[in-house]
């Protein structure tokens, strides 16, 4: 009987001791500041573009958390071990922020988040404390379609239809187009047979909106698209201001440099190349060339293909680049002619 009484007393003492420790831990609240968390907007209804003043995400700093020491220690350990997710997704429609013009109460939102709602901690404050939400209603507009390869190279393709309806803001720039991005596999497939793809636009914050219909894309074989041409060469010689007026350039193989240029191009690219104001080729003379005195030097000429047609692979050189041979001839100075 005595043993049972002692055991009961010990159990009561242990229970009271644990209770005191728990009460003490709860009574002694600590604070901890979390920096560089991010609130990111989730995808909204396609008809709406929701953003933080044109941005999809925004950083929140100095998130002051308050709670029991053990809970503070726990979250500090998670943050130091990088197991605490600092990305807070925000569904503006679910939060009731669409249409009422009210700002987001950031501490309250963080408190309701999955990361913190069961943490036993209170979000005391943060910067900013409120966030304005921009809501823009999108409307369908017809947009021309252009096609790119992954990496940004504009492709020359046959697109049907050439325009599609896409949801865009009212102030969408008139010249901006919907785009289709093809993988390398898509490109190879489109060379064999037409493929169907969905065009899209990219909003300023990186969100996208797809066209309501698909387009059919076909890439003509290269040999059919680019025809062979030979055109009369013109050349410009470019010197820096340091050499200009001090040297003349003696072009030793002028006949080779001025020979016909062999290209493969679309008719439009050929016409643009021939019709441009600058010469078709340029020989660049550098300041370092002066060090070689009047000895013969060699340098390939630069072919001034129109940049927009180069990006679209509409024009390529169909010969080895011509190498110019030249000498720098000193001009008489004005002081000692």
Record field, number of beta strands: 25
Mean pLDDT across all amino acids? 88
Distance between the termini: 130 Å
Can you tell me the residue ranges where pLDDT is under 50 for at least 5 consecutive residues?
Answer: none
Which outline best applies? elongated
Secondary-structure class:
alpha+beta
Count of discrete domains: 3
Count of discrete alpha- or pi-helical segments spanning 4 or more residues: 8
Share of β-strand residues = 35-45%
User: Would you identify the CATH architecture of the largest domain?
Assistant: Beta Complex
Helicity range of the residues? 10-25%
CATH structural class of the largest domain: Mainly Beta
CATH topology of the largest domain: RNA Polymerase Alpha Subunit, Chain A, domain 2
Q: Please compute the radius of gyration using only Cα atoms.
A: 35 Å
Biggest sheet, in brief?
5 strands, mixed
Q: What does this protein structure show overall?
A:
This protein has 337 residues and is of the alpha+beta class. The protein has three domains: 107 residues, RNA Polymerase Alpha Subunit, Chain A, domain 2, CATH 2.170.120; 82 residues, no CATH class; 105 residues, Beta Complex (RNA Polymerase Alpha Subunit, Chain A, domain 2), CATH 2.170.120. 23% of the residues lie in helices and 39% in strands. It is built from eight helices and 25 strands. Strands 1, 2, 4, 5 and 7 form a five-stranded mixed beta sheet that branches. The longest helix has 26 residues. 18% of the residues are buried.
């Amino acid at each position: 009987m005595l043993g049972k009484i002692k055991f009961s007393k010990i159990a009561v003492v242990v229970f009271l001791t644990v209770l005191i420790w728990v009460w003490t831990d709860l009574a002694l609240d600590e604070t901890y500041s979390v920096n560089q968390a991010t609130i990111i907007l989730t995808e909204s209804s396609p008809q709406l573009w929701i953003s933080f003043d044109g941005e999809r995400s925004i950083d929140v700093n100095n998130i002051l958390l308050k709670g029991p020491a053990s809970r503070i220690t726990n979250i500090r350990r998670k943050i130091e071990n990088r197991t605490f997710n600092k990305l807070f997704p925000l569904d503006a429609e679910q939060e009731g922020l669409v249409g009422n013009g009210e700002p987001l109460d950031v501490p309250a939102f963080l408190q309701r988040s999955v990361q913190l709602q069961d943490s036993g901690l209170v979000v005391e404050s943060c910067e900013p404390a409120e966030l304005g939400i921009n809501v823009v209603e999108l409307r369908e507009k017809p947009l021309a379609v252009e096609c790119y390869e992954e990496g940004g190279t504009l492709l020359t393709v046959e697109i049907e239809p050439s325009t599609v309806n896409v949801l865009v803001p009212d102030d969408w720039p008139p010249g901006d187009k919907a785009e289709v991005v093809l993988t390398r596999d898509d490109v190879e497939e489109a060379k064999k047979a037409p493929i169907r793809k969905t065009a899209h636009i990219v909003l300023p914050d990186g969100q996208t909106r797809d066209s309501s219909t698909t387009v059919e894309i076909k890439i003509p074989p290269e040999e059919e698209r680019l025809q062979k041409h030979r055109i009369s060469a013109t050349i410009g010689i470019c010197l820096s201001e340091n050499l200009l007026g001090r040297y003349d350039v003696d072009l030793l193989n002028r006949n080779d440099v001025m020979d016909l240029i062999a290209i493969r191009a679309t008719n439009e690219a050929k016409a643009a190349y021939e019709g441009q104001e600058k010469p078709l080729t340029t020989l660049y003379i550098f300041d370092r060339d002066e060090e070689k005195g009047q000895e013969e030097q060699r340098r390939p000429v630069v072919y001034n293909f129109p940049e927009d047609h180069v990006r679209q692979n509409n024009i390529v050189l169909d010969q080895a680049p011509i190498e110019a041979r030249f000498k720098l001839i000193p001009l008489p100075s004005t002081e000692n002619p």
